[in-house]
């Protein structure tokens, strides 16, 4: 399913309005689209999605139990300044210096669970943005 794009919107206006938004939004090159809750039809994730994310998070929790690493869930945004874009990966691991109040940059690890309703964006937008990040490492 293709997302409903809104915009154009400046990066500054996106950041200013994102905190007050009723639902999470991702931002790509001047346009934004809503995640769970924009349509008020599908809010949340499937049981399978939740199980996969929780299992990986539990494995990563012990690896990231160090002050120099930050483990983040989908509520914490990934900022890719070069694009410019903001995404909400299901899980991310950042070096602690790369963590701001509302987002992180230059992650070491990203997890995106693909579901039918998000497959287009996950495979056609996020995959290319994520795999271009030089900071990603194998854990």
Label this structure with key terms.
tt1808, chain A; 22% strand; 3 helices; alpha+beta; 5-stranded mixed sheet; 27% helix
What does this structure look like?
The longest helix has 17 residues, at 47-63. The chain has helices at residues 11-18, 47-63, 119-131, and strands spanning 25-28, 31-34, 69-73, 77-80, 85-87, 91-95, 103-104, 109-111. The chain has a single domain, classed as Alpha-Beta Complex (tt1808, chain A). It is built from three helices and eight strands, in the order αββαββββββα. The chain is 27% helix and 22% strand. With 139 residues, the protein is α+β, with helices and mostly antiparallel strands. The mean pLDDT is 89. The strands form two sheets. The chain has a five-stranded mixed β-sheet with strand order 2-1-5-4-7, covered by helices on one side. Strands 3-6-8 form a three-stranded antiparallel β-sheet, covered by helices on one side. Pfam families: Uma2 (PF05685). This is Putative restriction endonuclease domain-containing protein. Residues 12-132 form the Putative restriction endonuclease domain. InterPro entries: Nuclease_put_TT1808, Restrct_endonuc-II-like, Uma2.
